[in-house]
Amino acid sequence: MEVGLQCALGEAARPPRTLFPVPASPLFRVAVLVLDGAKPLDVGIPAQVFTTRASMPYEVRVCGAAPGPVAGGDGLSYYVAHGIEALEWADIVFVPGYRHPDRDDPPQAVVDALIAAHHRGARLAAISTGAFALAATGLLDGKRATTHWHYTQALAAKRPLVQVDANVLFVDEGSVLTSAGAASGIDLCLHILRGDLGVSASNHAARRLVAAPYRSGGQAQYVPRSVPEPLGERFAATREWALHRLGEPLTLEVLARHAAVSPRTFSRRFVEDTGYTPMQWVMRARIDVARELLERSQRSIEQIAADVGLGTGANLRLHFQRILDTTPSEYRRTFTQGQ
Fold this sequence. Notes:
The protein folds into 2 domains: 3-220, Class I glutamine amidotransferase (GATase) domain (Rossmann fold, 3-Layer(aba) Sandwich), CATH 3.40.50; 224-336, Orthogonal Bundle (Arc Repressor Mutant, subunit A). α6 links the parallel β7 (144-145) and β8 (163-164). α2 packs parallel to α7. By secondary structure, it is of the alpha/beta class. It has helices at residues 3-8, 40-49, 86-89, 108-120, 130-136, 152-158, 182-197, 199-209, 236-243, 252-259, 263-274, 278-296, 301-307, 313-324, 328-336; strands spanning 28-33, 58-63, 68-70, 78-80, 92-95, 123-126, 144-145, 163-164, 170-172, 176-179. The strands form 3 sheets. Strands 2-1-5-6-10-9 form a 6-stranded mixed β-sheet, sandwiched between helices. It has a two-stranded antiparallel sheet with strand order 3-4. The protein has a two-stranded parallel ribbon with strand order 7-8. It contains 15 helices and 10 strands.
């Protein structure tokens, strides 16, 4: 008998592998909390993934700080039937991403309701910038978390006690979960389904959504450039000079000689400017060029490795995996399909 069908028959048939206590209701109760500026995809993902059907023993309520209209982001607004009391009802609370999360915290009533739901035993799951709302509760302090790559530095700066992981698609800390951009909200929902109902139910939902049951790698591969924006403008000419010579040997001594300072001074000031050592920066610049060649050319992995100064395909694969958490071949398949 399929796992989803077993669970649809009621609480007694729920598989014993469930990671969290079985709710008093025969259905898992899911609240989707819509905050001002909520992003439409982020709201729609949990509402659709966990929609009540025979194979999905969940009940969904979309709520806000109060019932009624909520101003959304990207030109859409919402009318929610439920207020913050839905969090008292829920077994799982999703917090979709919202605009300008680094400016203001959610209303204190929302923060308090999230804390109370967590203390009562509900799981809290954030999609994208919804992580800022969870971080405002203090429940992420000392824990790993992620958010959309564009906001990872802002989250780390605003909530220094949170261990922000900028690479992963989602983080599961048990009772609090966070995910990266909108599409990774699907990854997080399928992960929760696997934990609640098993792989069969998760795969069934993935087919219904026409989504991959698992995605390889992390969100680092989606960041436009892995080389960070400089924090200062010292050595800008040397960085630009190096970008045009990545296929050549570039040592600390070579870079320092171009900048007309000692290697020790160059290294110290370079870290202050970029947050990376000179050699870390060079490696990330080489990986960026390799990404462009993988996307836009038919050159082999070995040829690209030589072009960017990494010598061999094995060396390129090693550093590509370390920095982007995927392989060159998988990256090429992901970003060239349909071109």
